[in-house]
Design a protein that fits this description.
The protein is mainly α and about 240 residues long. It is built from eight helices and no strands. It comes from Sarcoptes scabiei.
């Protein structure tokens, strides 16, 4: 909605070949192409981000640098909607409190910096970010992108349609809601199973490491026992 309100020709937003549909098709094709080529090249060993699977060579380092720059320069656009919703609400409360223009501008900058910083902190502090993103995508995206908009559309047009149009509205929207629920359940199940499997592998690795460390300590303790040292020294002196 913020992007729609900022457009000069809003009628071009929701056309069959309008801004929304064309941009979504381009994004889907880009993601599918990169995902297919990445899996085609590296198979099941591909990293959560395909750039992490690239070899440590100068040409691939340039690709990783360009990817990082693309994310950095497009980050403001990605945060536009969240900032456009959160910051004006805080600003309006400060206006009601009759704060000065300096305080209003300062609150804008602090709010924007906070929203950007907290995402960086979360990305850097979460150890298994790929699994968390899968779970968030399964939980949130299915609800926000499919289920909730369809329910709102059904409630909005429920009293405006009659006859076959209303029946088609119910059939179409209920079908979309069921697809969203299926994606929600399947995605959540596989995400949780992936988290459990990763944690089990890490637990097994730590247990094996601790077992090796315990065995080495036990061996050192045996070697350094007084009786064993005396026997070893006596045997060595006898051979001499």
């Amino acid at each position: 909605m913020p992007l729609y309100r900022s457009m000069r020709k809003r009628e071009n937003f929701a056309k069959p070949f309008g801004v929304l549909n064309i941009s979504i098709v381009i994004v889907i094709l880009a993601y599918v192409t990169i995902g297919f080529l990445g899996y085609r090249k590296y198979g099941s060993e591909v990293m959560p981000s395909v750039t992490l699977s690239l070899p440590n060579e100068p040409i691939y380092a340039i690709v990783q640098l360009m990817y990082a720059l693309a994310i950095g320069f497009s980050y403001l656009l990605q945060m536009y909607v969240a900032i456009n919703i959160a910051v004006p609400a805080v600003r309006q409360r400060l206006i009601n409190l009759k704060k000065s223009d300096f305080v209003l501008d300062l609150s804008d900058y602090i709010g924007r910096a906070f929203l950007v910083t907290i995402t960086f902190v979360l990305a850097a502090s979460i150890p298994e970010l790929d699994l968390v993103m899968e779970l968030v995508g399964a939980l949130v995206c299915s609800l926000v992108a499919i289920i909730i908009p369809t329910i709102l559309h059904l409630v909005t047009f429920n009293d405006r349609l009659r006859g076959l149009s209303k029946a088609w509205l119910y059939f179409r929207n209920i079908t979309i809601i069921l697809i969203g629920l299926m994606a929600f359940l399947i995605g959540t199940y596989f995400s949780v199973m992936g988290i459990v499997e990763r944690l089990s592998q890490q637990s097994a690795h730590h247990s094996h490491h601790n077992q090796l460390y315990s065995n080495s300590e036990h061996l050192v303790a045996k070697i350094t026992e007084p009786n064993l040292l005396n026997v070893t020294l006596s045997s060595t002196l006898a051979n001499l």
